[in-house]
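Write out this protein's structure.
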Amino acid sequence: MYRTSVNVLLIDDDAIYQFVSKKTLEATGNASNIQICSNGEEAIHYLESNLHNTAELPDVIFLDVNMPVMNGWEFLEAYQALKPNFPKDIHVFLVTSSMNDEDKEFSRRFNCVQDYIVKPLNREKISELLSHTVHV
């Protein structure tokens, strides 16, 4: 199936980063529906409530690691348990300010993680990531 735009779920607790990222995503022209959650728990609830609603499920998740309530690692644990129930593939990108090699290595334990990206995400990088997803 060929798509021209994707649904995006941005999971990050920083309101300024949320705003800037949403504007950047919109500027690419490849993101049709952008949902924002402020922590992993909120995101898991969103995914569970849309489990059978393919139109609302994201095609791409941009996930921060360091967040309150449920951090990125805890989200990934819960997400991997849910993943077999999703009616479509969802691409997960860790987007974090951590340049810690241990974090990058730890992210490889999660087969659902497509890439580990150090903030900030610019328009060109987002366009590149989304363009690969659009043609899936």
